[in-house]
Write a structure and sequence with these properties.
Elements lengths: L8 H11 L3 E2 L9 E2 L1 H19 L3 E2 L5 E3 H4 L3 H7 L5 E5 L2 E9 L4 H11 L8 E10 L14 E12 L2 H21 L5 E4 L11 E8 L5 E11 L1 H6 L2 E3 L5 E3 L1 E7 L2 H10 L16 E5 L6 H14 L5 E3 L6 H10 L4 E5 L1 H6 L1 E6 L5 E5 L5 H24 L2 E3 L3 H7 L4 E6 L3 H8 L4 E6 L12 E2 L6 E8 L3
Parallel strand pairs: 3-7, 15-16, 15-17, 20-21
Antiparallel strand pairs: 1-2, 4-6, 5-6, 7-8, 8-14, 9-10, 9-22, 10-11, 11-14, 12-13, 17-18, 18-19, 21-24, 22-24, 23-24
This protein binds '5'-O-(N-(L-alanyl)-sulfamoyl)adenosine (A5A).
């Protein structure tokens, strides 16, 4: 069975998730999905990179999944933002609970009462922790596997505590750097955008988001970094004693990434044949396919085995099954195997293999003697750069610089509109009337978008900065 064309992105996505065995969407609860073994392996490789980045500066922790109503409700803005989305546990068996327990929608209110106990003195700061856990949100917008879940299974949330606003702000910049490194590794182009006031994280001073552009022109928020100032510290009494003996409220940050990173990975690099995965995160990195002809089997199999032995440090498969080569190509293309080698009788004689990369259909010959780890890693690096460039080029087709609200109105629905906008709320809100959401203002305009930073607000003509508006997932 072949996949729908990626032109019909929504159908393509739904099919590829199921047939490439990422998620089984047949679980009988809305918004909850099952990871297949193959999908879970992708998750493992993607998240081990995220862990590696986090482990450099954070300690990993684990906080409980249940939060008492009394804690969840303490920070006014926070609970206002989440009250529609919380799942409640009201009973233990048949006994009603004295205090209702929330299934964590995120863990500020699980962690911060404990941070109050952990932070006493300036020497306890900065405190930097993270956890990778499941969280629950009763989402009312259309649910989709990996994109909008009611059980987010792979929620990486980091929480930090600092002496003052400035130090927390320095850390916000660092967190943005961590996320850039992560998405560069996945070859996913992103925009780093400061959300407007009305769209910041409930309880935050400000929110900076990573947005990418999906093949249908809608954006996907693939991570957020929040400066919490001392809002939660005041609520949860997180104070420290300074060297001068005075007590001060701490300032905090938090930042999160979910399995949306895998949704982006699949959607942005995939094609009509299926997954296209960067080498490092592919569960199978290399496949070797013998092209067998009667009487010449042994020489071909020997050459294949020799090659597979040389590639022992990678996740490599020798596919010597009964299927025809075409069926094998099809199967491994669907799974996104980055490098394929074929060896037929004449190749075996010459001591070469025919190589091809998943993202390029070109085949080329390479001498088996010349294949080694360095060469493969070189290819992996080149492939990542190629994936990034072609993703950025496709995304650019979905981005338009607009010079007026009318032009914006024309374009919304097709993709992302980029323009200059002042910081007057009315100007931003007036644009949302044309459909789509104001994503906010670029923290820095990425090189691949190539646009002047200064300009006049397309609504009122006063001084503006580069902003974006799009329909979002
Ligand atoms: N505590 C902070 C970090 C927090 O919860 N931030 S957040 O609400 O913005 O979520 C972090 C990231 O999780 C979002 O940027 C988004 O990429 C992802 N996310 C949020 N809701 C989701 C959902 N229902 N399904 C999948 N991913 C989701």
């Amino acid at each position: 069975m072949s996949l729908p064309s990626k032109e019909n992105f929504s159908e393509w996505y739904h099919e590829v998730i199921q047939t490439a065995e990422i998620m089984d969407v047949r679980y009988p609860v809305k918004g909850l999905y099952v990871w297949f073994p193959f999908g879970f392996k992708i998750r493992q490789f993607v998240y081990s990179k995220l862990r590696e980045i986090m482990d450099r500066e954070h300690d990993e922790v684990y906080f409980p999944a249940l939060i008492p109503e009394t804690e969840l409700g303490k920070e006014g803005e926070h609970i206002k933002g989440f009250e529609d989305e919380v799942y409640w546990i009201t009973h233990g068996g048949l006994t009603p609970l004295d205090v209702k327990l929330a299934l964590r929608p995120t863990s500020e209110t699980a962690m911060y009462p404990m941070f109050k106990l952990w932070v006493r003195n300036h020497a306890d700061l900065p405190l930097k922790v993270y956890q990778i856990v499941n969280t629950f949100r009763y989402e009312t917008k259309h649910t989709r596997p990996l994109i909008r879940l009611r059980e987010i299974t792979s929620f990486k949330e980091a929480h930090t505590v600092h002496k003052n606003f400035e130090e927390a702000e320095e850390h916000v910049k660092k967190a943005i750097g961590f996320y850039k490194e992560f998405y560069d590794f996945l070859a996913i182009p992103y925009m780093v955008i400061r959300r407007p006031e009305w769209d910041k994280f409930p309880g935050a001073a400000y929110t900076i988001a990573f947005d990418t552009v999906m093949p249908d022109g809608r954006t996907l928020q693939i991570g957020t970094v929040h400066h919490l100032a001392d809002n939660f510290a005041k609520t949860f009494e997180i104070k420290y004693e300074a060297p001068n003996g005075e007590h001060y409220y701490a300032h905090q940050t938090c930042y999160g990434i979910s399995e949306r990173c895998i949704a982006a990975l699949i959607s942005i690099h995939g094609d009509d044949q299926g997954l296209v995965l960067p080498f490092e995160v592919a569960p199978i990195q290399i496949v070797v396919i013998p092209i067998l002809y009667k009487g010449k089997e042994e020489a071909v199999m020997d050459a294949c085995k020799k090659l597979v032995d040389k590639l022992a440090s990678f996740r490599v498969i020798l596919d010597d099954g009964e299927e025809r080569p075409g069926a094998k190509y099809y199967k491994w293309e669907l799974k996104g195997v980055p490098i394929r080698f074929e060896i037929g009788p004449r190749d075996a004689e010459k001591g070469v293999a025919v190589a091809s990369f998943r993202d390029e259909k070109k085949k080329f010959e390479v001498s088996i003697d010349e294949i080694n780890d360095d060469l493969i890693w070189q290819w992996a690096q080149i492939m990542r750069e190629r994936l990034f460039t072609s993703a950025a080029n496709r995304i650019l087709e979905k981005i338009k610089i607009v010079k007026s609200p009318d032009e914006l109105k024309e374009w919304v629905g097709k993709g992302v509109a980029i323009f200059h906008l002042c910081n007057n709320e009315d100007c931003g809100l007036s644009l949302e009337e044309h459909g789509g959401s104001l994503l906010g203002w670029f923290e820095e305009v990425p090189e691949w978008i190539n646009l002047d930073v200064e300009g006049e607000c397309i609504v009122c003509g006063s001084k503006g900065k580069v902003a974006a508006l799009a329909r979002t997932y």
